[in-house]
Design goal:
207 residues; alpha/beta; TIM Barrel; 8-stranded parallel barrel; two-stranded antiparallel sheet; 10 strands; 23% helix
Length: 207
Amino acid sequence: MKLKICGMTSVENIQQVAELQPDYLGFIFYEKSPRNFEGIIPELPSEIKKVGVFVNEYVEIVVSLIEEYRLDVVQLHGDETIDYIKELKQYLPKVEIIKVFGIKDEFNFEILKPYEEEIDYFLFDTKGKERGGNGEVFNWGILKNYNSTKPYFLSGGIGLAEVAELQSFFKRKESQYCHVIDVNSKFETKPGVKSVEKLKKLKKNIS
């Protein structure tokens, strides 16, 4: 199981977390987020993919930031349409695209079908007041109804308290297309700064 650590802000912390060799590191470009990124991304090992997280941002700004920070992946966390994604791909043909959908107590997976040909991954987060970072886990049992073969990221309030539940989930059929576990706020000492010790424990238990 691959690991994405999102909401990085501090150069020193980015370097510390990179030593754990996560598969993805996420940088949030959204001014309303307490983890909004405005700094410098230090040189990282090539096997760690850098993800830029955007919410209903102008295509031109997304393209500019992807090129400036040499990001590998775009994560769309807003209400981006198919046409928006197609336009983005014209400018960024080599960049992978993740489209986020929030889940609470139920979800109609049919709405994903139009996106399947245009994106690389779905990401399922907990639907809440904020655009991510709500620190709550949604009911993973809903994923029994997932009717796509597109790999997905599992996000939403995942912390060390969820390790046993994760291990159980990995054994169930609905996890077969789960590609990455995405963590953020439950591993923080303060917004944007992650506890390396907690992340070590998680990595040991999901590898």
